[in-house]
Structures are given as structure tokens and as C-alpha cells.
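Running low. Got one?
___
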Amino acid sequence: MAIAAPPVFAEDKSLELEAGIPKLARTGAAFRQTDSGDGEVSTENLGNLLRRVSRTSMDEIDNLIRELQTLRKKLQTDGDRIERDIAKHAELSQQVMQLTAIIFDSVKKLPGASGISR
């Protein structure tokens, strides 16, 4: 059972990875208010934060897309191989049936093979 990690309060960290999932720190440059005179967070800082969060998410989505495309190609390749193997197996089975019939007919024609019947 996993236990949630306590929040990160380090001033110098803006992102921390835990089990491959990025977490925003509770404090950092992006969350600090700049002195714009009216006490509001600057749009530049909010824009930077949004870009960082978006970039991480988009990178993860791009990685997932690449992995899915790789798996799709592997599935297609494996499916094609299996189809070829099935066709080859059916062809070999047909050849075995023909050879069996030829052998049966040849054995039936041997002297003393009168006890063999279909």
C-alpha cells in the first residue's frame, strides 16, 4: 500500500517527480506575486506556469501516442505473420492429406494387403 508523500515546500523546486507523475510545489517562483501595484499575480508568471504544466502534459501525451503507434505496428506485424503461418499450415495439412491418400492407395495395391479396407 502506497502512502502519499508530504507536500514539498522547498523554495528552489518548482517540480518534483514522484512515480513518474510531475507535482507542482506549493511554493516557487511561479506562485509568487509580483509587485504590480494592485496586488494581483502577474500574467507573465501565470503564463509561464501554464506553459510548464501544458508542456509536461503534452510531452506525456506525445510519448503515449508514440508508444501506441509502436504497439499498433507490432500488432499489425504479428497479425500478418500469424496469417501467413495459418495459410502455410493449411497448405501443409492439405499436402499431408494428399500424401496419406497416395500411401494408402500404394499399400492397398501391395500383395497380401487384401485385409486393408477403407
The chain is about 55% helix and 5% strand. Confidence is low (pLDDT under 50) at residues 8-19.
